């Protein structure tokens, strides 16, 4: 698993960027790990490119939402290949994070990947932020924030060009800082 955490003592990362990473085997790529503080403000993200969302529930039951955002896909790899390797990267990041942050704790918490909206929209994940009642669409093209459920469906049909019958039923990834993340079926 050739994942490397890139650190530079002279570089100050933007707010929410946890670290920069590099994957040295094929597909080679640079990425950043972006975290969203679910309690402080309404998450608004507009990022382009491959991404992978995952949730870590800490031993003290705090919910943390992370996204791996690919900055440079050096091999121009397909989304299927990138998704598989980014899942390994998420595991690597969580293992490293836990090893440092919770090294004295027996309970390391748990982590989970976001689920696809439905079988007709592979790779499309819709995150519903319960505390703000806002949404984030994660897809091959990037991350897109939506203020309402109606805006989510407009994005799916108008921008991603899915037929209405394919997006009529599915499941949101429900993120609520007060509760363990869950899946909400429509």
Quick synopsis:
The chain has 186 residues and is an alpha+beta fold. The chain has helices at residues 79-101, 149-159, 164-167; strands at residues 3-6, 17-23, 29-36, 46-48, 51-57, 63-73, 110-113, 125-129, 134-139, 142-146, 171-175, 182-185.
What would your notes on this structure say?
With about 190 residues, the chain is α+β, with helices and mostly antiparallel strands. It is about 20% helix and about 35% strand. It has helices at about 80-100, 150-160, 165, and strands at about 5, 15-25, 30-35, 45-50, 50-55, 65-75, 110-115, 125-130, 135-140, 140-145, 170-175, 180-185. The strands form two sheets. Strands 1-2-3-6-5-7 form a six-stranded antiparallel beta sheet, with helices on one face. It starts with a strand and ends with a strand.
What tags apply to this protein structure?
186 residues; alpha+beta; six-stranded antiparallel β-sheet; six-stranded mixed β-sheet; 3 helices; 37% strand
Topology at a glance:
Layout (H helix, E strand, L loop, with lengths): L2 E4 L10 E7 L5 E8 L9 E3 L2 E7 L5 E11 L5 H23 L8 E4 L11 E5 L4 E6 L2 E5 L2 H11 L4 H4 L3 E5 L6 E4 L1
Parallel strand pairs: 8-11
Antiparallel strand pairs: 1-2, 2-3, 3-6, 4-10, 5-6, 5-7, 8-9, 9-10, 11-12
Helical element count? 3
Overall geometric form: globular
Number of strands: 12
- Helix/strand-derived category reads alpha+beta
Poorly predicted parts: none
Strand order of the largest sheet: 1-2-3-6-5-7
């Amino acid at each position: 698993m050739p994942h490397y955490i890139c650190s530079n003592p002279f570089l100050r990362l933007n707010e929410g960027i946890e670290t920069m990473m590099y994957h040295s085997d094929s597909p080679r790529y640079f990425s950043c790990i972006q975290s969203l503080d679910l309690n402080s403000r309404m998450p608004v993200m507009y990022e382009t490119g491959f991404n992978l969302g995952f949730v870590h529930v800490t031993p003290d039951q705090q919910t943390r939402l992370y996204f791996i955002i690919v900055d440079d896909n050096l091999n121009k790899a397909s989304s299927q290949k990138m998704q598989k390797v980014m899942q390994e990267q998420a595991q690597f990041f969580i293992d490293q994070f836990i090893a440092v942050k919770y090294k004295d704790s027996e309970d390391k918490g748990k982590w989970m990947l976001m689920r696809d909206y439905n079988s007709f929209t592979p790779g499309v994940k819709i995150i519903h932020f319960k505390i703000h009642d806002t949404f984030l669409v994660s897809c091959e093209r990037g991350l897109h924030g939506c203020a309402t459920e109606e805006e989510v469906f407009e994005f799916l049909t108008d921008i991603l060009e899915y037929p209405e019958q394919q997006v009529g039923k599915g499941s949101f990834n429900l993120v609520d800082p007060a509760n363990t993340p869950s899946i909400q079926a429509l």
